[in-house]
């Protein structure tokens, strides 16, 4: 088993159990306890867990990357403000590719009065858009990725290669100027890599808590992004670094971001 596969299994166990033991992980993954300890040390350095005697626990932080369910439910007002800003970029008769995620779901809720084509692999977004008459909806299909509402498959990937897409809206688990855009699973990484490469305009929509974080798998370099929509808690130094790379950063202002609440 590759190290990246072990990392994914360890984090999956941690998300379910909240605490993991070295001895248990050694048995589950069929590797030595020494290997597990090295893996936990590596994941701790990335800020994904905290080691304790004989195992590890989730990071005690409001901005932790895990668990996924809690991460997606937070910052709802920020995500709505980001979605409103994203809508100002959409033009009639464009073809838009919308990746799955809580922020892109908010964008989907605002669509409906504009004649556009939307391509998405996300079941939640498809459900929101299915009754909106002016929207031509295309769902490439595939098999549902475990613990998500996203579909993925070889047929969908091949279809993307044949489509002309004006703009892609997508998110990432971690965003780093140096280490790029990252997620936790290889299936999500494969899909996101494809959608970033097939659009004329690549628009990253993410709240400021994602910046400066690094998950397991990189799917794109930061230079592949044309513009970013985020909130006004984004570190000014990071904003300047992004702009030096000719990435347009659109910052939304809202009461939530200014209060710093959850």
Write up what this structure looks like.
By secondary structure, the protein is α/β, with parallel strands linked by helices. It has two domains: 56 residues, Arc Repressor Mutant, subunit A (Orthogonal Bundle), CATH 1.10.10.10; 185 residues, 3-Layer(aba) Sandwich (Rossmann fold), CATH 3.40.50. The chain contains eleven helices and 15 strands. Strands 6-5-4-9-12-14-15 form a seven-stranded parallel β-sheet, sandwiched between helices. The protein has a three-stranded antiparallel β-sheet with strand order 1-3-2. Strands 10-11-13 form a three-stranded antiparallel β-sheet, with helices on one face. Strand 10 and strand 11 form a beta hairpin. Helix 2 crosses helix 3, helix 5 crosses helix 6 and helix 6 runs parallel beside helix 7. The C terminus is likely disordered.
Task: State Rg.
Answer: 19 Å
Overall domain count: 2
- Just give the CATH class of the largest domain: Alpha Beta
Give the total of beta strands: 15
InterPro entries: Carb_Metab_HTH_regulators, DeoR-like_C, DeoR_HTH, NagB/RpiA_transferase-like, WH-like_DNA-bd_sf, WH_DNA-bd_sf
Domain HTH deoR-type: 3-58
GO molecular function: DNA binding; DNA-binding transcription factor activity
Protein name: DNA-binding transcriptional regulator of sugar metabolism, DeoR/GlpR family
Tag the structure with descriptive keywords.
seven-stranded parallel beta sheet; alpha/beta; 2 domains; 262 residues; single chain; 40% helix; Arc Repressor Mutant, subunit A; three-stranded antiparallel beta sheet
